[in-house]
Amino acid sequence: MIGTYNALMAWGFGAASLAYAALALLVARQGYFRPPVNRPGLAIMLAALLTTTWAGLSLLAQSVPVLWMWAAVADVCRYAAWFAFVVYLFRASAEQGRSPETARWMVPMAVALPVLSLLSLVVSAFWMQPASGAPVGLFLTMMLLSVLGLVLVEQLFRNLPEDALWSAKPICLGLAGTFLFDLYLYSQAVLFNGIDQDAWNIRGIVHAALMPLLLLSTTRHRNWIAKIRVSRKVVFHSATLLMAGGYLMFIAGVGYYVRYFGSDWGRALQLALVFLALVFLIALALSRSFRARLRVTLGKHFFSYRYDYREEWLKFTQTLSSQSAPGETGLNVIRGLADMLESPAGMLWLRRPDEKMYRQVARWNLPQISQTEPVDSPLLAFMQRSGWVVNLEEYRNAPERYDNLTLPEWLQGQPQAWLLVPLWLGQDLLGFVVLGSPRTRMDVNWEVTDLLKTAGRQAASFLAQMQSTEALLEARKFEAFSRMSAFVVHDLKNIVTQLSLMVKNAKRLSHNPEFQADMLMTVENSLERMRQLMLQLREGAAPGGAAVGVDLGQVAKGLAASVARRGRELELDIQPRVATRGHEERLERVMGHLVNNALDATESPQRVWLKIDRFGSHARVEVGDNGMGMSESFVQERLFKPFQTTKEAGMGIGAYESFQYVQELGGKVKVDSKEGEGTVVTLLLPLIESFHESDWHQMGEA
Asked: Which of 57, 155, 643, 677 is deepest in the core (most CB within 10 A)?
């Protein structure tokens, strides 16, 4: 069937022959054969020549069927040339120190499979006759060649550094396309006992269409070959893909013979076998235990060191920092250490700075333990003295290696406990992690313990930062509560002063009806203010309520009346209808604080005045006196800071609170003061111009 003439097949193989001949010519012009000889480049040129030979022989074989044998030989040889290209790349990378070690399976497989295919081709030569059956053995070996080609291309692509990706990606895509098409072609031949004629007819066209991708890589950058390196992750994925391919090849072969010997039920049994095999393969791919065994086996037999430390460190750091909530740091420490050793469980024990014991703070797939471990227990004393990673399996078999250490009861009751990893913060043992038994058998050697010790120190720094953050948040909460308490105490002091003055005058004016009414109003006002203070202290916020228009003239008149009751005089100079937006009670407290400070700084007959007018787009409030004044350094450095005052009994809170509220309203504060001459404090507050007449009447009535 393959030997019959087909125009589409002829055009396809003819195009492939010309395309790869052009590729070989262009690669030869790049001088890969000149000293120093570039072996990967020579392998590309050889593969192009062999592909040209294969396509030309396939074209001629339509007229001379005996040439199909030699075309098949050229087909196998071109596979071998592409395998040599990848092998040479990895060897060159290893010689230049950019890869730890070439995978040991690569060279034997790259040699054995083409040889096996050639032998199978010789044995199956008589099957090439149209009257004979299909050469299933040859199809199987060609499938293996395609699978190995895909594995090598996958490994090559995963190893590309960023600077080589642009130039090398096209050749990876081109080779992957040709190998994938051949895999489809030969797998179909195995499963259905013969070549798919339509797929065979377009094989030459597919190879010719993918050739420009190979050419693009050779013309983009001549130096891309020198930038490829191997990694452990790639070996793991490649080995997994190779095993999956081999498994599928085996199932395909078994399926063929089941169909061949199954008589009428052969096709049904073949489909059932393929389906069950795929389900089993998916189950293996999802099994973490299987992946763990494979990773350990590859690390033990393919590399001189078990770990790729750069990869492990990046993964561990990412695990530690990938917390979605502040309390997940401990759990991330457990998972980060457990993932290094394929452990499925663990628990974290920490000591707080104010405690002399360790307690369980996080766990993963292990039970909750309420017991604590004293800092002077035998276990902690041994860990602090030795600094070891305690292997509990080794301890159970040979306790004398650990000085006959006595384990605590809570640890003896954990049969799956495997390793105790200390978390050192400098010279202090911050805590330790208990890891559960791994998913697969693993030897704990010096490499494992050194990695765990180093990772434990990094984890300890993360945990110490978490503890410091918690302590800082707690301190800030106390600081906020203390600040609020200071404000409340300051307001209470003002209320107490007002009530004390009222009680003092009550002895003299108790029978005066006006005084009685004023006293009742003062008590009610003080009671309301104390309720607001209690609400502020309980809710941890400033007094609520929406900001409204406040007539500053009315506030000033109320302050003047209050000052008059103290036996002093407040001179007023008020421009009518000057208003701002804010909380009337808080604005009254701000202006009242300034007036009280002016009164405290003066004695009768010294002046204290309050002036309100418009200043551009602002309402200007000026409170002045000709009293003792303040020094320039005090005004610049201490005036609006908390707990800074010139009064003997003052708290230094009022000025700070007033300044903060004026800033909150979008206003400004200006202070002019000289010692012995007096002080003038000016507030600039946003002016409200959109009041209606009814609004002024309402505020006046209020």
From this structure: 155
